[in-house]
Design goal:
heterodimer; A: 160 residues; 4 helices; B: 108 residues; 39% helix
Chain lengths: 160, 108
């Protein structure tokens, strides 16, 4: 049995007297775009929603921050930082970022040729945005444009 | 890549990989580089293997032999675990704020 987060979180905030989350639920099947070539020949983009930033960058804020950061793929784990509204999920990532942002596994897979090439930068955003409208109107177009500039063939999404 | 299969199913992505670990460990346990590598390698394989929209592949890893973490994750008595919401950047360390201000002052 897997953890039923939607029910659990809905129940918790109802009990605390908060308005109910309006969870996003897709109403249509996802669009399907087959890969044009094997992942071993593809350029891969990465998106983390863990509020990751590199030391020297501006951290995320917690009220519907729709900005994003570019994380150079060569970033040392020791320079990776996190600012995410659910800080209770971050203690291990703050000790070893690779359990949420797999910098070292991806570099190894690129070096071994399992991944054709990683884009120069991963993209990072805040996963805890309460406005679906602002995600659609601000965040998604911005990161989509960056991936178009990077000419990636596929994107690996890693939520917190 | 997902640690919450109900949330990811609600979003209905074209292809996904589920790791049944507590949130905050999307790509494995801390300081377990070989396991993290294997998890991400299996996720990469799904790019090539998936043929149908909406397919979710579950990875064969167990966080621990105890089920306690799952009951703790849904503890009904837990309070609000979210940090306060405002528009102040939340640096992990004070030094990070100084480093960011130095970067901005340098025009980078």
């Amino acid at each position: 049995m897997t953890v039923q987060y939607i029910k659990s979180i809905t129940d918790r905030y109802e009990r605390l007297g908060y308005p109910a989350y309006k969870w996003y639920r897709a109403e249509e099947p996802p669009p399907w775009t087959p890969l044009k070539k094997p992942i071993s020949e593809s350029r891969l983009g990465v998106l983390t929603t863990a509020g990751a930033y590199v030391k020297g960058q501006v951290a995320f804020y917690y009220k519907d921050d729709t900005s994003h950061r570019a994380i150079p793929k060569a970033t040392a784990a020791a320079d990776m930082r996190f600012s995410h509204i659910t800080e209770n999920y971050l203690p291990d990532a703050r000790r070893d970022p690779n359990c949420v942002v797999p910098l070292e596994p991806l570099r190894r897979l690129e070096a071994e040729g399992v991944i054709g090439e990683l884009a120069d930068d991963y993209l990072s955003c805040m996963g805890g945005i309460y406005s679906q409208r602002r995600v659609h109107e601000e965040l998604i177009p911005a990161v989509t444009a960056r991936y178009a500039e990077q000419a990636v063939d596929a994107v690996y999404l890693v939520p917190l | 890549m997902a640690g919450a299969d109900d949330i990811i199913r609600a979003g209905w992505p074209p292809r996904s990989v589920f790791l049944d670990y507590p949130l905050g460990h999307t790509t494995g346990k801390p300081f377990a580089p070989d396991e993290q590598y294997d998890i991400v390698r299996q996720a990469m394989a799904v790019f090539d293997a998936a043929t149908e929209p909406g397919q979710m592949v579950s990875l064969d890893y167990q966080w621990s032999s105890e089920a306690d973490w799952k009951s703790a994750a849904t503890d009904a008595s837990a309070g609000d675990q979210r940090a306060p919401r405002d528009e102040t950047p939340r640096y992990q360390h004070d030094d990070d704020r100084l480093a960011a201000e130095a970067t901005m002052a340098g025009g980078q």
